Each structure stands twice: as structure tokens, then as C-alpha cells.
Amino acid sequence: MTDPDSQDIIRRSKAGDQAAFALLVRGHYPVAYALALRILCNEMEAEDVAQEAFVRVWRHLDRFDPETRFTTWLYRIVTNLSLDQIRSRRRKGGRVLNRREDDEAPEPVEASTPETIASNRDFVRIVNRLAGDLPETQRVVFTLRDIQDLPIETVCAITGLSSESIRTNLHYARRRIRESLEKDYSVKGSAL
Q: Which of 126, 134, 156, 192 is the Cys-Cys partner for 174 at CB 3.0 to 4.6 Å?
């Protein structure tokens, strides 16, 4: 299978080749969905956002700059749609944080060292949940940088924020998560 990030597939998709576009979708849908899920904390909304992102990609593929990475462009679309969804929830009086309703509150993590905690799957689940409580800009920056592990420059390209703003929001997000871990889960010396 051809690499879905290749210029040939993008070029063919721009020319209206639906089979080539299907390769783009197949290759990138899981990443788009995962990003939306981490920002929105709601599976149905994440699925809607990921699907809408590819509708927008198809409609605006002629605007794609081949000098940039396709994934950066896609992440920006997914991030913006996710933020729009959060704002829509707020306008409708819904919960801004919309954790999966079937998730039970996790049990406190019992561990003596940050290394033990970091290796614990529950710890990762807790951090993802706490990220959902962050203000939207901090949530997006934390998700892109610390959860998706994207470089600061890529986060800047996706969000349109300066590197200083990224670092500031990341600092406050990490501090808030660290404080929640210490207060709610008795986790001391978090690696965040």
C-alpha cells in the first residue's frame, strides 16, 4: 500500500480521484478520531468530528499547501472542529467536560514512586480524564504536546498560537493536572 502521506496520493485526491482520497482517509482516520476523542472526551462527538474533518479536507483539498505536512493540516482541522463542538456544548448549556458516561471514577492510584505510577495504565487513563477538565486552550495544547507527543513547532502550526503561548498554556495545564493528581489521587511527585 502506498504511504497515505505521499504527495502522489494527495495530488490524485486534489484531481478528484476518490480512490486516492479513500487511501488518505483510511490512513489518517484513526489518528483524527483519537485526537478528537482526547479533546472532546466523548466517543460519538469524536466520530462526528473525525468524519466532518474529512468532509472538509475533501472540499478544501485544493487549498492544501504541499509545503506543509498533511497531518499538520488535518490536526488543525480536527482541533478547530473539536473546539467548535466544545463551544457549541457551552452555548446549549451542556457540560463542557463530557466524560464518557459509562466511565466510573477511577480508584486512587497506590504507588510509591513516579516511575511506578507512569507505568500504570490507570495513571494514563486518569491523566486523560484530568486533561478533559482543563480550559479549552490548555486542553488542546496539553493533548497535542504531551498526549500526542507533537513538537512545539507543530503545535504552533496546528493551533496558530506562538511558541511562548504554547509553553505558558502547557505549564498551567501540567500544573493543574499535577495538583489534581496530588489532591484527588494522593500521587506525590508526579512526572508531569
A: 192
